[in-house]
Amino acid sequence: MIKRLFFSLCIIFLLNNNNRGVNANSYPDFKYDQNEALQYLIFSYAAYCSGNDIQTWNCTTCQNPQIKDFNIVSSIFNITTNTQAYVGYLSDQVVVSFRGSMDVQSWITNFQFLQTPYEPYPSAKVHQGFYNAWLSVREEVKSAIDISLSRCGSGCGKIMVVGHSLGGALATLCISEVQGWYTIPAYIYNYGSPRVGDVTFASYFNKVQPNTYRVVNQKDIVPHVAPQGLLNYHHVPTEVYFPTNDTQDYRVCNDSGEDPTCSDSVIGLSIYDHLHYFNQHCCCR
């Protein structure tokens, strides 16, 4: 297992140092806010809790002061794809959160790079496994958002979609459709997300959903998966890169999705950094 993981990491590093194209994209229309980012990270971590604990909102992570007043509407789980999410509302916003991988080392070692055409924009291609996982819960997520919006009331001003690790990839696929479902604005914060699709998808995504902050912590390995040099995989913008443990030491990167001065500038081989965003230990507590 260790030898296979090391070989996988070496391949990822070599491929990620190629094909650094830059596209003209749009920045989010709201400023990155570290306090908001921390709150949405906690929402992301809560998605790792058991479905029963999420549905009753009584896990330790759920009772964090930043999110304890959240009103859960639905805990969602698809057994076939092992995909978990939850939906509810807090104050004037609906929150959708997706769970990441429960075993990061095994997930990286066994990662498959197969792509499939992206249904809303078929000339783009996305990771087949991520897309199948999203499709397996899409209808339940939309139904739960509908209910959340009705309960949240006329003062509900936004939909926020969040996720860590694999959950960040699912959040990306979710938000690209959510924006077309409703008239109120939708936003996304994700953490340690892998690449979701090819450069065509990244460009399309930015056109329909520029209000994205994709946070990367130091030498986190997962944002370097799938390798950029393979099958034209390309990150969606906009990256927010933290080069150190200092939560005030960050850079909002350029609009390409692959800023060579941000996480693409380092050898990203750390699972520890993947599990310690903002010095907060992942995942459910």
TrEMBL record:
Keyword terms: Signal
GO term, biological process aspect, one: lipid metabolic process
InterPro entries: AB_hydrolase_fold, Fungal_lipase-type, Sec_MonoDiacylglyc_Lipase
Recorded superkingdom: Eukaryota
Fungal lipase-type domain: residues covered: 95-228
Cited PANTHER family: ALPHA/BETA-HYDROLASES SUPERFAMILY PROTEIN (PTHR45856), FUNGAL LIPASE-LIKE DOMAIN-CONTAINING PROTEIN (PTHR45856:SF20)
Name this polypeptide is given: Fungal lipase-type domain-containing protein
